[in-house]
């Protein structure tokens, strides 16, 4: 099975890219990711200013990871050796860069191009620290930043977008108009890790970013919206923990994906687990390459005006093996489901076909069917 992809004009052995963050903070760390099977790596954010990382800075949430980690601990000049080391060991290196003005970010882009980076990713949407609110919320500002970089370098430019904005589509169009070769998204979601209610203190001392399972629906919505509105390649990011999630992003228009949190929590070997799953699924379904599935789910995505008001009703299609569970009855706000010792019944007159019982039931015994 051919898992290779062409992205940003670069030949990748597979679509899994390790995203900018704790796993890509040095050449040796990027080497580990490549040797574990990743198709490419994105450096930790490279900036002119070194910001020391606080301790602690990572907290595992129920469905993800909170972090307040900032930029790279290396100076811009030191990244020459780190990029060179990764490339000597076979890495395709995308440099994630940050500047506070268009001229600054263009300068950094020129430097990493000279260092041998294969492409750059504009990291202008990170919610950590002070952020760059003007860039991530104003299409004109993003256009200015992107255009400045595109005009100064020859390698491809990818723009990383965020859900922490009003209209991600307008930003994607601005990046495309400015000459970006691709869009990546989403960045982490602005968050507070939580509060220790016994001590009356926050778990991490400042605002940070949330990543992992919980943000995947947000990421999928952003990628689908961008795919519908632009014609440049997309890299999907957010909550990818298994191969099915990679396929979801691709079926909504992504050509590649970036993964970080699930690798942090499961080790570098998780990359091979993802690849094995992809390989098996593609072979099982007789797909030859990812182009055959890219964007295939977009046709089923409709506006509210296009949705037909079909008369669905819920119906049990199997026997409940745990009458004590009772999740279906408890969650049916219409009072249509009743569970007794012998069976599960649905009152068809009360059921409105909302569909919640289908996903709430751990045994999956419900189905939506025609009311008539």
Please provide a written account of the structure.
With 372 residues, this protein is an alpha/beta fold. It has 2 domains: 5-300, TIM Barrel, CATH 3.20.20.70; 308-370, Alpha-Beta Plaits. It is 31% helix and 19% strand. The protein contains 12 helices and 20 strands. It has helices at residues 27-35, 79-88, 102-115, 133-137, 139-152, 168-177, 216-229, 243-251, 261-266, 270-284, 327-331, 356-360; strands spanning 5-7, 10-12, 16-18, 40-42, 58-60, 65-67, 93-97, 119-122, 157-161, 182-185, 189-191, 195-196, 201-202, 208-211, 234-237, 256-259, 312-316, 337-339, 344-346, 366-370. The strands form 6 sheets. An 8-stranded parallel beta barrel has the order 3-4-7-8-9-10-15-16, surrounded by 7 helices. It has a 4-stranded antiparallel sheet with strand order 5-6-14-11, with no helix packed on it. Helix 3 (102-115) packs parallel to helix 5 (139-152) and helix 8 (243-251) packs across helix 10 (270-284). The chain is globular and about 70 Å long. 44% of the residues are buried. The mean pLDDT is 93.
Just give the CATH class of the largest domain: Alpha Beta
Q: Pairing-aware structural class of the strands and helices?
A: alpha/beta
Fraction of residues in H or I helices: 25-40%
Major β-sheet profile: 8 strands, parallel, barrel
Strand content: 15-25%
**How large, in whole angstroms, is the Cα Rg?**
23 Å
**Helix segment count?**
12
Number of domains: 2
């Amino acid at each position: 099975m051919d898992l290779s992809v062409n992205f940003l004009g670069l030949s990748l052995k597979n679509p899994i890219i390790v995203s900018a963050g704790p796993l890509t903070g040095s050449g040796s760390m990027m080497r580990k990711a490549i040797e574990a099977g990743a198709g490419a790596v994105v450096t930790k954010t490279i900036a002119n200013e070194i910001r020391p990382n606080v301790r602690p800075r990572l907290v595992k949430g129920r469905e993800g990871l909170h972090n307040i980690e900032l930029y790279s601990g290396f100076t811009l000049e030191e990244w020459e050796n780190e990029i060179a080391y990764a490339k000597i060991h076979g890495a395709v290196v995308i440099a994630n860069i940050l500047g506070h003005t268009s001229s600054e970010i263009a300068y950094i882009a020129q430097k990493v191009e000279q260092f041998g980076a294969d492409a750059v990713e504009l990291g202008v949407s990170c919610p950590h620290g002070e952020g760059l609110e003007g860039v991530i919320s104003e299409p004109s500002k993003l256009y200015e930043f992107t255009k400045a970089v595109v005009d100064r370098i020859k390698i491809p430019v990818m723009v990383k977008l965020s859900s922490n904005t009003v209209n991600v589509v307008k930003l994607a169009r601005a990046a495309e108009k400015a000459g970006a070769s691709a869009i990546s998204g989403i960045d982490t979601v602005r968050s507070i890790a939580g509060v220790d209610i016994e001590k009356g203190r926050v778990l991490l001392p400042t605002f940070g970013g949330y990543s992992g399972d919980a943000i995947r629906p947000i990421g999928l919505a952003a990628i689908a919206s961008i795919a519908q509105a632009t014609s440049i390649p997309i890299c999907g990011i957010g909550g990818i923990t298994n191969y099915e999630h990679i396929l979801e992003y691709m079926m909504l228009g992504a050509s590649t994906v970036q993964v970080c949190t699930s690798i942090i929590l499961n080790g570098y070997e998780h990359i091979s687990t993802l690849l094995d799953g992809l390989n098996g699924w593609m072979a099982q379904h007789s797909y030859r390459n990812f182009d055959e599935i890219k964007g295939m789910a977009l046709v089923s995505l409709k506006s509210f005006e296009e949705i037909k008001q079909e008369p669905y009703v819920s119906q049990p299609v199997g026997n409940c093996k745990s009458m004590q569970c009772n999740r279906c009855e408890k969650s049916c706000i219409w009072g249509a489901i009743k569970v007794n010792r012998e069976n599960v019944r649905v009152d068809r007159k009360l059921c409105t076909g909302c569909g919640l019982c289908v996903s709430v039931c751990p045994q999956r015994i419900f189905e939506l069917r025609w009311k008539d």
